[in-house]
């Protein structure tokens, strides 16, 4: 039987292939090592709290005594509580009204995108609400709505108890929340407007596109990533609204302005019902998860 020559056992093309394999393997190891700290952070500060909350929602616990397993008891009580449906209805109201922030932010961004002297100062004024904390915004609008000395009472000539009337309190708080949220959407759209290629705009002008046609057929398609991000962040912000409610109304009057996030806080901090509060957190997370998964699938489908 003929033997294979020694020179053929080490063909010229095999050594570069092995070198490429070693190179690819080292790159994979380097990528894994770079990703490892971030993965650990996500596991410790995101995944573990989520799993811990789900596990805790099956127990009755006040934070100090021993836990008592109640199974689905917290969820059964939650779905029978009238406050839960009030909070859920208020979250839907926040969601609907908060969707005004992206178009308002787009309008402000289009106005600020002009090359006019002094526009930088105007941009800083519109940007200011975004850097203010929720507590500061809540205090400002609480003073604004005050029926005795507030600016709204001076404008109307008489006081209206916006934060003390169940008919107006939700709209008053949402209007206050729209102020910084519109500024955030404005920043996203301004970033998108600066990245639009001027050659595309010039070509559209040559083809006769002006004003509304230019906006609808050229600018808005180019701003699709910014629009997606603005809508996602706005909806998540509406679902997790808490700080302004805590500062401006405390969930009142008579729990008429409470939302799921504040309801969760109320049960945990005031009544020491940690397991019941965890059940509320799981329901809120499930609502957010459905929305996030839907939009991620839609985004991936559009990219394909």
From TrEMBL:
GO terms for biological process: transmembrane transport. It is found in: Cell membrane. Keywords: Cell membrane, Membrane, Transmembrane, Transmembrane helix, Transport. SUPFAM superfamilies: MalF N-terminal region-like (SSF160964), MetI-like (SSF161098). GO terms for cellular component: plasma membrane. Residues 87-295 form the ABC transmembrane type-1 domain. Its main location: membrane. It comes from the Bacteria. The chain crosses the membrane at residues 30-51, 92-112, 124-145, 171-193, 214-239, 274-294. It is a multi-pass membrane protein. PANTHER family: ABC TRANSPORTER PERMEASE PROTEIN, INNER MEMBRANE ABC TRANSPORTER PERMEASE PROTEIN YCJO. Belongs to the binding-protein-dependent transport system permease family. This is Lactose transport system permease protein LacF. The gene is lacF_1.
């Amino acid at each position: 039987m003929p033997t294979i020559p020694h020179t053929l056992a080490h063909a010229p093309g095999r050594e570069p292939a092995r070198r490429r394999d070693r190179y690819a393997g080292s790159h994979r190891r380097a990528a894994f090592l770079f990703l490892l700290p971030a993965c650990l952070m996500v596991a410790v500060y995101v995944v573990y709290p989520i799993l811990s909350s789900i596990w805790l929602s099956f127990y009755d616990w006040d934070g100090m005594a021993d836990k008592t397993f109640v199974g689905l008891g917290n969820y059964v009580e939650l779905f029978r509580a009238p406050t839960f449906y009030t909070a859920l209805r208020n979250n839907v109201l926040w969601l609907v009204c908060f969707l005004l922030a992206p178009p308002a932010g787009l309008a402000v961004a289009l106005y600020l995108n002009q090359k006019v002297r002094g526009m930088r100062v105007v941009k800083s004024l519109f940007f200011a609400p975004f850097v203010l904390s929720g507590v500061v915004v809540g205090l400002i609008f609480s003073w604004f709505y005050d029926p005795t000395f507030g600016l709204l009472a001076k404008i109307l000539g008489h006081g209206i108890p916006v934060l003390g009337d169940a008919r107006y309190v939700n709209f008053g708080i949402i209007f206050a929340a729209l102020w910084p949220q519109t500024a955030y959407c404005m920043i996203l759209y301004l970033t998108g407007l600066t990245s639009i290629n001027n050659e595309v705009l010039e070509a559209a002008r040559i083809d006769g596109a002006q004003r509304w046609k230019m906006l609808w057929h050229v600018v808005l398609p180019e701003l699709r990533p910014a629009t997606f991000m603005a809508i996602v962040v706005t909806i998540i912000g509406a679902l997790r609204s808490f700080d302004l409610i805590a500062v401006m109304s405390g969930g009142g009057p008579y729990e008429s302005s409470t939302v799921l996030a504040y309801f969760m806080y109320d049960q945990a901090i005031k009544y020491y019902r940690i397991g019941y509060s965890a059940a509320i957190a799981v329901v809120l997370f499930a609502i957010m998860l459905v929305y996030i998964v839907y939009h991620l699938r839609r985004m991936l489908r559009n990219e394909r």
